[in-house]
Amino acid sequence: MQISVKSCWTFIQHSWSFSMGSAYQFHSWRVFVVVCALPCICSVVALTFMPESPRFYLEVGKHDEAWMILKQIHDTNMRARGQPEKVFTVNRIKIPKQIDEFVEMHTESSNAVSKVIFRVKTELYGIWLTLMKCFIYPVKDNTVKLAIVWFTLSFGYYGLSVWFPDVIKHLQADEYASKVQLHNNELTEDFTFNFTLENQIHTNGVFINDRFVNMKFKSVTFINTTFQNCYFEDVTSVGCFFRNCTFIDAFFYNTDIDDSKLINTKVTNCSFHHNKTGCQMTFDDDYSAYWVYFVNFLGTLAVLPGNIVSALLMDKIGRLSMLGFSMVLSGISCFFLWFGTSEAMMIGMLCLYNGLSISAWNSLDVVTVELYPTDRRGTGFGFCNALCKFAAVLGNLIFGSLVSITKAIPILLASSVLVGGGLVGLRLPDTRSNVLM
């Protein structure tokens, strides 16, 4: 994940591009997509060299292959322990019920399609039975508690991950708006604009015989303004609008001024030639877009210390202690967001929050795996992970809708669910010294 965010910040912030044909533009974000695809391709290749699960081989009746993989795992572990001479022996293997046995029970006169449908139904029924086993004794209480912890941690973590960048963007927008330049009732004649006009509002102005050449409008709004005999060439506009304006005998060449920017504007005897098409925005034009990637990069980078700490201390202080206290401390750290009034403070809080919460994620993964027996481990973990994704979507929707409304509700909501989930996590059974079932 850190590599993905780093490559995103590295590639997308550049505004370079090149053309393939007359219309296709290969921008920097396409390079980022290609870079992100490379690890997936490498993973697919690497999977071909990985051995299959012994349990799967037992389920399909390939007992010899399962025995060989178990022997390979045993020999690798013994070499790592300095005991390569130890012989692999198996006293008993519990063979799970094979799916093919149920399929063969189906009438032999059935066609291939009905057999496939029956097999799918059998698989789904087996998954359903395994899921129901996660809600019966002795793992029922653990499943309920794990579901609460997974939901609360995901809801708070992913909700705040959406809220943080948008809050910083709003802080930037407020600061930018406070510096706007106001121009009222100004007359400009026979002047050449060949520089950038930025963060301005022109009201009731008049421009006569002016030239706008090789320049840029950035966050400029013209209201009730008249342009007469003006010349526009190589003009780019970002966040620029002409409201209730009048253009008389104006000439436009290689500009991106179109109907979407001419709002209730009257155009008389004007000509438009070789208009620009597509998005002309770059990171130089929209600095907040750059900050979205930069803030995510810093937030992702902040999890490295938490990963190192959890790897070194999990077995020493225990999974539950790390899980519970990490979530509680993450919830407490959210309260300090109340005092965040600048970009630097909010970014610092984001890094602190991510550094604390990553230890909870690592501990929760380990605890979830160790609390379920082998026949329910995959299904139980999958159920908790699906609940995690649902909570992430819910958190994104709720926190995203509150960005521009209030800061109190997201802070109190995230703190409450994280602290509550951490206290529930402390009630889980300790699995530090348990042998996997």
UniProtKB/TrEMBL annotation:
Membrane-crossing segments per the record: 29-49, 146-164, 290-313, 320-339, 379-402, 408-428
Main location: membrane
Every SV2A/B/C luminal domain range: 182-272
Family note: Belongs to the major facilitator superfamily.
Annotated NCBIfam families: synapt_SV2 (TIGR01299)
InterPro entries to which the protein is assigned, alphabetical: LD_SV2, MFS, MFS_sugar_transport-like, MFS_trans_sf, SV2
Compartment list: Cytoplasmic vesicle, Secretory vesicle, Synaptic vesicle membrane
Alphabetic keyword roster: Cytoplasmic vesicle, Glycoprotein, Membrane, Neurotransmitter transport, Phosphoprotein, Synapse, Transmembrane, Transmembrane helix, Transport
GO MF assignments: transmembrane transporter activity
One Gene Ontology cellular component annotation held by this UniProt entry: synaptic vesicle membrane
Recorded topology in the membrane: Multi-pass membrane protein
GO biological process annotation, one example: neurotransmitter transport
Keyword Transmembrane helix recorded: yes
Coiled-coil ranges per UniProt: none
Name the record gives this protein: SV2A/B/C luminal domain-containing protein
Keyword Glycoprotein recorded: yes
